[in-house]
OPT family oligopeptide transporter
Amino acid sequence: MGGNERTVSPSSPDSIDTSNETSKPHDWRESYVSATLIGLAIGVLLCVLNVLVLFRTGTSFGGSALVAALGAALLRVTGALSWQALFVVFSIASSGYVATAALDTGIGAVVLDGGDLPAWGILVLLAMASNAVGIGLGGLVARTLVVAESLPYPTLKPAITLMASLSTRAGQEGNRLGRTLPVAAAVGAACALGVALWGHEATPELFGSGTHVALALSPLLYGVGFLIGPRACAWLAVGSAYTVVVWFLQDRSSAQPADYTAHLSYPWVLAAGVGLILGYSLAAIARVRGPLLRALRGDFANRLIGGHARWWAVAALVVLALFAALYPPVLRYLGFGVLGLALLVVVTVFLTRAGGEIGLVPLAPALYFSVVVFAVAGADSATAVLVASTICCAAIAAVYFTYSAKVVHDRPETLTEPPRRLTGWTQLVGGLAGAAIGVLVIAVLTRAGVIGGGAFPAPVATAVRFVDATVRGSSDYPATVALAMAITGPLGVGLAFTSAMPTMIGLGVLLPPAYSLTLAAGGLTQWLLTRRNPGRRSATEIVASGLIIGEGLITVAVLVVREVLR
């Protein structure tokens, strides 16, 4: 990840001389106030657009590179541009625009099903609380993923590169970046615009209808394949081959072909993919248990469990036991609470590891799996969907905390590490603001009665309803899910001690085959370009970053123009 980083020249007019920071407290505070306001503005704007676009098209957009470019432009206008200020913008905005991720889908699914929603004030507090919990969980796992395991975070690399280059004076490497990156971004943007105008996101199926073998017409996915490398792409293709075979057998056994939602909700796809990644994650945590235990045994943890806190915990358990004895139904809700905590850990580990290894966060599989678990446990439909989506919302907040931690870890070499509390408070500020505004937008759409209509058909919420109904309508489904997890979980643990990459196999199982195969094509291309000339690796990574940036910017623009402003 460090090959394209730029270092900050102390004489650069757009950078902060860290040796003199303490001698200029007024300027330091001014730049951070500007950065905070800019980060809030970008985060809230993208959060609103994500909610509207999700209910309209079923997709949402990331925007790490977009946030870096837009934040740098606005900071330059205010005269406050520096890497430190740009990091504040990035951290606040990135947590803000995903603050209602998954929870918006859950609310939409309950609305479509005609269920009763809690009061909107409670939903705002629920969104805020899930973001706060997710940030706390992100703080626990970030050091393990970013430092101990050094996961690559491939889709984050373009933003890291932009933040370093836009906030520093260009040198030899910067000049090379300045020549290659815009050209590659223009190519990616042109390709993405052409695909949008054509109206087809993938090639026809390569081996005939029903084979599900196609390539996505996506410069972004092709570029990510360069960044995650040929070995990871090869294992991704293995998982994709499995899912193609299962999909083909599904089609053969039913009266009509299964769409992607029906395919993904099949236990031997959903539970198998999640089981592989979860099993590997548990084994990986066991391997780095030393650093993790040291983090958990820090001063904060000692204060938390020491002194009077432990007696308060014992008292709370006693009171809970008394309530359970007097009111047996409490045991049911206690069981749901324990199940929710366990699932929160599982989903957080699942999504943070996927985000770190491949950069694509498979939110739909995590949400479907969470709904399945609560439906199997006997929760009513509205409760299952809302609790599952809240858990996934917290897990997404944890993912973006690790993203900010990765940006800090890969900062320019001349800068000292920002205090850890800076990442925490910037993530919290962005998450709370995005949660409040995002839920407000959902409330407006709900009260207007447009969710599920022609303007906002809410396809993802409809898919969640389908998964919930599928589980409740089949007596065999829970047993098949348990069997798939019982086989693939230990398999993931075992593969962790081999040269295989279980996370990539599991993601290949869960992602649409066109996505996985396009990623694999990118990895194969990089291998062909660099196998005889390893020195080309840096150039190929710059080109890949440009392709990702180009499609990302065009995707946001097209979605806004076509689906929101139309």
In short: Confidence is low (pLDDT under 50) at residues 1-28, 299-307. The longest helix spans residues 25-57. The chain has one domain: 27-564.
